[in-house]
Amino acid sequence: MPKGKVLTNIEKGQILAFHREKILNREIARRLKRSDHVIRNFLKNPADYATLKRKPKKSKVSSCKKRRIVQLPSNSSKSLKTIKSDLGLNVCKETIKKVLEDSPHILRSKMNKAPILKPVHKQKLIEFAHENMARDWKQ
After folding, report:
1. CA-CA distance, 3 to 84, in Å (whole number)?
2. Single pTM value for the model
3. Quick one: angle between helices 36-44 and 25-32, nearest 10?
4. How far, in Å, CA of 36 to CA of 34, rounded?
5. In this structure, are residues 70 and 103 in contact, taking their beta carbons and an 8 Å threshold?
6. What crossing angle do the helices spanning 80-87 and 63-71 adopt, rounded to 10°?
7. What 8-state DSSP symbol labels residue 81?
8. Could you tell me which of 45, 105, 43 has the C-alpha nearest to residue 71?
9. Residues 66, 95: contact at Cβ < 8 Å?
10. pLDDT, tens digit, 9 for 90 and up, residues 99-136
11. How far apart are CA 39 and CA 32, in angstroms?
12. Cβ-contact 104, 117 below 8 angstroms
């Protein structure tokens, strides 16, 4: 992969002009404050300079598996780890997260933490319900 910036149109024109005047590549590089290597690569084939089309990275998850990932948590609060284990996928949690983020149908949000409901709390809820069964809640 290239490390520096691509040559501008002005720099390309200057390189071609200096080259026509029979100036050495190293001298052209020194004048333009660019590397000798980039000058050499440009002069090899000026028409094809910086036109390399890179292929996108192949996805580890097939389209079939993506559909299964989206279908599974559609109406549940399953974690990414449980989705991974339920489907038997050999990918990391982040990959599953990206698939779910890309899907317009799934809106995931982190669940709020709630305190554990102890037997004392359950008893108080039942007492409250018994006390207020006859209450008119519309007022």
Report:
1. 37
2. 0.46
3. 120
4. 7
5. yes
6. 120
7. H
8. 105
9. no
10. 988 888 887 777 788 889 999 999 999 999 999 998 88
11. 10
12. no
